[in-house]
Structures are given as C-alpha cells and as structure tokens.
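Summary for the funding panel

The consortium committed to producing paired sequence-structure records for every protein in the target list. Below we show the first two records in order, beginning with the earlier of the two.
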Amino acid sequence: MEFARWLSLNTGNAAEVKALIALGSNLGNRQAHLDAGLAALAQLGSVLPSPMVMETPDESGLGPAYLNSVALLECEQTNPQRLLEALFRIELAQRRDRSAGRNAPRTLDLDIITVEGQCGTWHWPRPEGLAVPWDTLELILPHPRARQREFVMAPIRALGLESLVP
C-alpha cells in the first residue's frame, strides 16, 4: 500500500520537519511487524530508526511482552492530523485490530511522540474510509506520557534526540 498519498493534504510549506514516532508490537512476529512499520514510514519520508529495541511487559496484563523502539521521520511539512491518519493506515495494513479496545494486544502500534514546531491538541472527524472505531480523532503533541515511558525515551536517547521531546 502506498502511504505517502495520505500526506498529500499538506499546509503548502515544503520544508522538512522532524517527527519522532514510537513503534511497538506484542503479537505474532514482533520484530517483523516493527520492520514493516519502519518500511511503511520510509514511504512518508526519510527514516532513522533507533539502534535500541526494548522488550517490555504488557502494562495491561492482557497480552505478551512488547518490542518497542522509536524512529526519526523527516518528511515534508504536513498537517499533523494527516500524519496520524497515515500512521493509523499503516497499523491497519499490519492487521491491527482496534475493535478489541485501547489496551488490547496489537500487531503494530505507532504513536507520534513529537512533531517539530507543533504543540497542542487537535480534534477532527474521522475521515471517510479510515477503519477506526471513533467518530472523532484526537492528537496531543507532544505525546503527554512520552517522558514517563523509558521504552520511549531510551531509544530516543540512543538516537541522541532527547532535545526534541519538550
């Protein structure tokens, strides 16, 4: 699937921006799911994966342990909402099942940690054709729990990019 087309609704500014994207998986071949996520992110722009992949227990107790990492994505300036929608489409392509609830085990979880120059909360209607169980999507930047999660911050530190997380 071509994911770059989901970013085509940009703000008109062609500058490159940096976004930190957290990746996680606790179902099936976890490393293969992370690799597929990185490959899909590469369709959106330049990707620098963290050299650190961490295994962490499932905090909910509902599933097996996670593999977690982070990647730096440099892409054309785009609306952060369109970026989140593209990440949802990547997750769905990896057969992420959101109908099982927020903390359910997942093949691939992609979270925007921060987007350079963006801070705030956005709410917008679910776009047509996006198979998620909510009528309204929400994005909070920077990610409100990023600094509390070692499985996010350690891979960011391994990239030397902790300064990007406010």
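The next record, for a separate protein in the list, is shown here:
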Amino acid sequence: MIETRAFKVLSDETKMRILNLLVENECCVCEVMQALEIPQYKASRGLINLHEAGFLNMRKDRLWVFYSLDKQGLTDYRLKLVEAVREALKDNAVTKLDKERLKKAVRVGAGCHRGRGKPEPHLHSADPGNSVIRHNK
C-alpha cells in the first residue's frame, strides 16, 4: 500500500500555510486562527489533519493544546515534504503576513476560544523572511 495521507494533506493551501508556521513555532488553535485569519473549525481541522498525517506533535497543557513540527518523528520523505513546503513559500507575500500576524497573536481563554478569558501574549521568534500563494498552471 502506498502512503498518500501526507500528500493529500499538503494539497490544501491552508494546511501548507499552517505547516509553514509550525516549522519554527509551537502554536495553539487560536494563534493559528489569528495568524491565517481563518475560523476556528478550519484551524482545528487543519492542525488535526497535519497531526494525523505524521507532521505534527500535539502537547496538552491543562486546557490548552499546542502543536509543533514533529522534528524527531518525521520520516525522511515527510522531512523532504516539509522542506519543499518551506522552500515553495519562502518568498510568498501571504505567508509573510501570516508570520507577522503570528507575532501579534494572543492566547485567549480556556481552550483558545477567541473572546473568552484574559488574553495571554504570545512570544515568537518568527522568521520575517517570507511573500501570495501562486498557483502555477
């Protein structure tokens, strides 16, 4: 049987953008929502799909769930796919904005639901070096 899950998950622009954020940062759902300016369900589904495809670690801390790149567990071909995504998006205007918004993102309330609880500032060392996802035809 051929492993296709990793390729399927990366065929989606939003999931590529999420993976690109998580190459250098650990994030919760609300931070991904704010950085990509997407609804909660889309951020959650993207993170879960990337986790199930073997790209991400999931860490729970009380009510928070944090996702990061699974640097230890990535197979060789998944690592090559991560590098391909990173290379494809390095000069992308959209992903550059994603990383800039991530720097300003806040962790909000229990379970990361926007608008509930006291915001918790997020500290990132995001790389500002990225530039509109172009679809080559």
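Regarding this second record: The first helix runs from residue 5 to 9. The CA atoms of residues 94 and 132 lie 4 Å apart.
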